[in-house]
Amino acid sequence: MREYDENGFDEKGFDKKGIHRETGTKFDPYGYDKDGFDENGFNMWLVDREGFGIDGYDYQGFDRNGIHKETGTRFAPDGYDRDGFDKDGYDIGGFDKDGYGRGGYDREGYDREGFNIDGINRETGNEYDVDGYDEYGFNEEGIHKETGTRFAPDGYDIYEFDEKGINKHTGTEVNEEGFSLEDLKKMYGMTSLAAKESKLEELEEEAQKISEAEKLVEQREGKSEEKSKDE
To answer: What is the pLDDT of residues 168-210, one digit of tens each?
Structure first.
Protein backbone atom coordinates (compact mmCIF):
# COMPACT_ATOMS: atom_id res chain seq x y z
CA MET A 1 0.00 0.00 0.00
CA ARG A 2 1.32 3.42 -0.99
CA GLU A 3 2.23 5.68 1.97
CA TYR A 4 2.20 9.48 2.01
CA ASP A 5 4.07 11.97 4.20
CA GLU A 6 2.60 14.86 6.18
CA ASN A 7 2.61 16.98 3.03
CA GLY A 8 0.65 14.37 1.08
CA PHE A 9 3.43 13.01 -1.13
CA ASP A 10 4.73 9.45 -1.47
CA GLU A 11 8.38 8.46 -1.57
CA LYS A 12 8.55 9.23 -5.30
CA GLY A 13 7.07 12.70 -4.83
CA PHE A 14 3.56 12.01 -6.11
CA ASP A 15 0.35 12.97 -4.32
CA LYS A 16 -2.82 10.88 -4.16
CA LYS A 17 -3.96 12.27 -7.53
CA GLY A 18 -0.70 11.23 -9.14
CA ILE A 19 0.69 14.77 -9.47
CA HIS A 20 4.40 15.23 -8.88
CA ARG A 21 5.43 17.97 -6.45
CA GLU A 22 8.35 19.20 -8.58
CA THR A 23 6.78 19.21 -12.04
CA GLY A 24 3.13 19.79 -11.21
CA THR A 25 2.28 17.11 -13.79
CA LYS A 26 1.67 13.37 -13.81
CA PHE A 27 5.33 12.82 -14.62
CA ASP A 28 8.45 13.23 -12.52
CA PRO A 29 11.55 15.12 -13.76
CA TYR A 30 12.68 11.96 -15.57
CA GLY A 31 9.41 11.59 -17.47
CA TYR A 32 7.84 8.74 -15.48
CA ASP A 33 4.46 8.66 -13.71
CA LYS A 34 3.71 7.35 -10.23
CA ASP A 35 3.74 3.76 -11.55
CA GLY A 36 7.01 4.20 -13.40
CA PHE A 37 5.73 4.56 -16.98
CA ASP A 38 6.45 7.36 -19.45
CA GLU A 39 3.98 9.18 -21.72
CA ASN A 40 4.24 6.35 -24.26
CA GLY A 41 3.38 3.74 -21.65
CA PHE A 42 6.85 2.22 -21.20
CA ASN A 43 9.01 1.93 -18.09
CA MET A 44 12.76 2.43 -17.88
CA TRP A 45 13.28 -1.10 -19.25
CA LEU A 46 11.04 -0.29 -22.26
CA VAL A 47 8.30 -2.66 -21.11
CA ASP A 48 4.65 -1.55 -21.06
CA ARG A 49 1.99 -2.09 -18.41
CA GLU A 50 0.95 -5.43 -19.92
CA GLY A 51 4.48 -6.78 -19.94
CA PHE A 52 5.28 -6.28 -23.64
CA GLY A 53 8.50 -4.69 -24.81
CA ILE A 54 8.84 -1.93 -27.35
CA ASP A 55 9.27 -4.66 -30.01
CA GLY A 56 5.84 -6.07 -29.13
CA TYR A 57 7.00 -9.21 -27.36
CA ASP A 58 6.94 -10.19 -23.68
CA TYR A 59 9.88 -11.62 -21.76
CA GLN A 60 9.02 -15.12 -22.99
CA GLY A 61 9.02 -14.03 -26.62
CA PHE A 62 5.24 -14.02 -27.16
CA ASP A 63 3.31 -11.18 -28.78
CA ARG A 64 -0.12 -9.91 -27.71
CA ASN A 65 -1.82 -12.66 -29.73
CA GLY A 66 0.21 -15.38 -28.06
CA ILE A 67 2.44 -16.04 -31.08
CA HIS A 68 6.10 -16.74 -30.39
CA LYS A 69 8.62 -14.67 -32.33
CA GLU A 70 10.95 -17.63 -33.04
CA THR A 71 8.46 -20.30 -34.06
CA GLY A 72 5.62 -18.23 -35.51
CA THR A 73 3.20 -20.46 -33.59
CA ARG A 74 1.49 -20.47 -30.20
CA PHE A 75 4.37 -22.54 -28.85
CA ALA A 76 7.91 -21.57 -27.90
CA PRO A 77 10.85 -23.72 -29.01
CA ASP A 78 10.45 -25.78 -25.82
CA GLY A 79 6.91 -26.74 -26.87
CA TYR A 80 4.97 -24.69 -24.33
CA ASP A 81 2.63 -21.75 -24.92
CA ARG A 82 2.51 -18.41 -23.13
CA ASP A 83 0.68 -19.96 -20.17
CA GLY A 84 3.08 -22.88 -19.92
CA PHE A 85 1.00 -25.64 -21.53
CA ASP A 86 1.97 -27.93 -24.41
CA LYS A 87 -0.15 -28.86 -27.44
CA ASP A 88 -1.98 -31.48 -25.38
CA GLY A 89 -2.78 -28.99 -22.64
CA TYR A 90 -0.28 -30.14 -20.00
CA ASP A 91 2.37 -28.11 -18.18
CA ILE A 92 5.97 -29.11 -17.54
CA GLY A 93 4.84 -31.05 -14.49
CA GLY A 94 2.34 -33.07 -16.55
CA PHE A 95 -0.84 -31.38 -15.28
CA ASP A 96 -3.56 -29.53 -17.21
CA LYS A 97 -5.09 -26.15 -16.36
CA ASP A 98 -7.49 -27.81 -13.94
CA GLY A 99 -4.68 -29.60 -12.14
CA TYR A 100 -5.20 -33.11 -13.51
CA GLY A 101 -2.38 -35.25 -14.89
CA ARG A 102 -2.27 -37.29 -18.07
CA GLY A 103 -3.56 -40.29 -16.14
CA GLY A 104 -6.62 -38.34 -15.03
CA TYR A 105 -5.63 -37.80 -11.39
CA ASP A 106 -4.72 -34.59 -9.57
CA ARG A 107 -1.68 -34.04 -7.36
CA GLU A 108 -3.50 -35.67 -4.43
CA GLY A 109 -4.36 -38.74 -6.48
CA TYR A 110 -8.06 -38.10 -7.19
CA ASP A 111 -9.82 -37.98 -10.56
CA ARG A 112 -12.35 -35.38 -11.72
CA GLU A 113 -15.18 -37.30 -10.07
CA GLY A 114 -13.32 -37.29 -6.75
CA PHE A 115 -12.19 -40.93 -6.67
CA ASN A 116 -8.66 -42.28 -6.24
CA ILE A 117 -7.17 -45.29 -8.00
CA ASP A 118 -8.65 -47.59 -5.36
CA GLY A 119 -12.15 -46.25 -5.93
CA ILE A 120 -12.29 -44.30 -2.66
CA ASN A 121 -14.02 -40.92 -2.74
CA ARG A 122 -12.21 -37.81 -1.52
CA GLU A 123 -15.21 -36.41 0.37
CA THR A 124 -16.74 -39.50 1.93
CA GLY A 125 -13.71 -41.73 2.49
CA ASN A 126 -15.55 -44.75 1.07
CA GLU A 127 -16.48 -46.14 -2.35
CA TYR A 128 -19.50 -43.84 -2.79
CA ASP A 129 -19.62 -40.09 -3.36
CA VAL A 130 -21.87 -37.71 -1.43
CA ASP A 131 -24.76 -38.57 -3.77
CA GLY A 132 -24.33 -42.29 -3.22
CA TYR A 133 -22.64 -43.27 -6.49
CA ASP A 134 -19.36 -45.15 -7.00
CA GLU A 135 -16.58 -44.25 -9.42
CA TYR A 136 -18.45 -45.98 -12.26
CA GLY A 137 -21.66 -44.07 -11.59
CA PHE A 138 -23.63 -46.88 -9.93
CA ASN A 139 -25.34 -46.76 -6.53
CA GLU A 140 -25.75 -49.65 -4.09
CA GLU A 141 -28.88 -50.83 -5.94
CA GLY A 142 -26.97 -50.98 -9.21
CA ILE A 143 -28.75 -47.96 -10.74
CA HIS A 144 -26.65 -45.66 -12.90
CA LYS A 145 -26.81 -41.93 -12.16
CA GLU A 146 -26.97 -40.84 -15.81
CA THR A 147 -29.55 -43.28 -17.17
CA GLY A 148 -31.62 -44.03 -14.07
CA THR A 149 -31.55 -47.70 -15.10
CA ARG A 150 -29.40 -50.75 -14.41
CA PHE A 151 -27.31 -49.89 -17.45
CA ALA A 152 -24.66 -47.22 -17.94
CA PRO A 153 -24.68 -45.09 -21.13
CA ASP A 154 -22.47 -47.72 -22.81
CA GLY A 155 -25.19 -50.34 -22.29
CA TYR A 156 -23.52 -52.40 -19.57
CA ASP A 157 -24.64 -52.95 -15.98
CA ILE A 158 -22.75 -52.88 -12.71
CA TYR A 159 -21.26 -56.29 -13.50
CA GLU A 160 -20.29 -55.20 -17.03
CA PHE A 161 -22.93 -57.34 -18.75
CA ASP A 162 -25.45 -55.99 -21.27
CA GLU A 163 -29.20 -56.66 -21.24
CA LYS A 164 -28.65 -59.92 -23.14
CA GLY A 165 -26.17 -61.15 -20.55
CA ILE A 166 -23.09 -60.62 -22.74
CA ASN A 167 -19.92 -59.47 -21.01
CA LYS A 168 -18.26 -56.24 -22.09
CA HIS A 169 -14.74 -57.65 -22.21
CA THR A 170 -15.20 -61.22 -23.40
CA GLY A 171 -18.17 -60.93 -25.73
CA THR A 172 -19.56 -64.11 -24.15
CA GLU A 173 -21.91 -65.01 -21.31
CA VAL A 174 -19.05 -65.21 -18.80
CA ASN A 175 -16.54 -62.58 -17.69
CA GLU A 176 -12.76 -62.82 -17.69
CA GLU A 177 -12.86 -64.76 -14.41
CA GLY A 178 -15.30 -67.28 -15.86
CA PHE A 179 -18.39 -66.10 -14.00
CA SER A 180 -21.77 -65.49 -15.61
CA LEU A 181 -24.13 -62.69 -14.63
CA GLU A 182 -26.23 -65.08 -12.58
CA ASP A 183 -23.12 -66.40 -10.85
CA LEU A 184 -22.18 -62.89 -9.77
CA LYS A 185 -25.65 -62.06 -8.51
CA LYS A 186 -25.73 -65.22 -6.43
CA MET A 187 -22.32 -64.53 -4.95
CA TYR A 188 -22.86 -61.00 -3.67
CA GLY A 189 -26.08 -59.48 -4.94
CA MET A 190 -26.47 -56.11 -6.58
CA THR A 191 -23.55 -54.26 -5.00
CA SER A 192 -21.11 -51.80 -6.47
CA LEU A 193 -18.56 -52.72 -9.10
CA ALA A 194 -15.81 -51.84 -6.64
CA ALA A 195 -17.26 -54.31 -4.15
CA LYS A 196 -17.54 -56.89 -6.92
CA GLU A 197 -13.90 -56.50 -7.78
CA SER A 198 -12.95 -56.80 -4.13
CA LYS A 199 -15.01 -59.96 -3.77
CA LEU A 200 -13.48 -61.43 -6.90
CA GLU A 201 -10.03 -60.81 -5.51
CA GLU A 202 -11.02 -62.66 -2.34
CA LEU A 203 -12.38 -65.56 -4.39
CA GLU A 204 -9.27 -65.69 -6.53
CA GLU A 205 -7.06 -65.69 -3.44
CA GLU A 206 -9.14 -68.50 -1.93
CA ALA A 207 -8.94 -70.46 -5.17
CA GLN A 208 -5.17 -69.96 -5.20
CA LYS A 209 -4.90 -71.28 -1.65
CA ILE A 210 -6.98 -74.32 -2.55
CA SER A 211 -4.83 -74.94 -5.62
CA GLU A 212 -1.65 -74.71 -3.58
CA ALA A 213 -3.10 -77.05 -0.95
CA GLU A 214 -4.02 -79.59 -3.62
CA LYS A 215 -0.50 -79.43 -5.04
CA LEU A 216 0.94 -79.97 -1.58
CA VAL A 217 -1.29 -83.02 -1.05
CA GLU A 218 -0.22 -84.41 -4.42
CA GLN A 219 3.44 -83.91 -3.53
CA ARG A 220 3.00 -85.67 -0.20
CA GLU A 221 1.12 -88.54 -1.80
CA GLY A 222 3.85 -88.84 -4.40
CA LYS A 223 6.54 -88.99 -1.74
CA SER A 224 4.51 -91.57 0.17
CA GLU A 225 4.25 -93.78 -2.90
CA GLU A 226 7.99 -93.49 -3.54
CA LYS A 227 8.70 -94.45 0.05
CA SER A 228 6.45 -97.49 -0.23
CA LYS A 229 8.24 -98.61 -3.38
CA ASP A 230 11.61 -98.27 -1.70
CA GLU A 231 10.47 -100.45 1.20
So the answer is: 999 999 999 999 999 988 886 655 555 556 666 776 777 788 8
Is 4 in contact with 15 (CB distance < 8 Å)?
Answer: yes
What is the Cα–Cα distance from 77 to 72, expressed in whole angstroms?
10
Give the pTM: 0.60
pLDDT for position 217:
74
Cβ-Cβ contacts under 8 Å for 172 (sequence gap 6 or more):
166
Positive or negative torsion for Cα 32, 35, 41, 43: positive
First vs last C-alpha separation in the chain: 101
Q: What letter would DSSP give residue 152?
A: -
Residue 200 makes CB contacts below 8 A (sequence gap 6+) with: 177, 179
Give the pLDDT of residue 124.
Answer: 97
Q: Which pLDDT value is given to residue 126?
A: 95
Tell me if 4 sits within 8 A of 10, measured CB to CB: yes
In angstroms, the Cα distances linking 153 to 121, 132, 137, 223 are 22, 18, 10, 57
Domain boundaries along the sequence of the chain: 1-44, 128-226
Q: Please state the rounded mean pLDDT for residues 154-162.
A: 95
User: How far is it, in rounded angstroms, from Cα 60 to Cα 46?
Assistant: 15
Task: State CA 2 to chain mean position distance.
Answer: 41
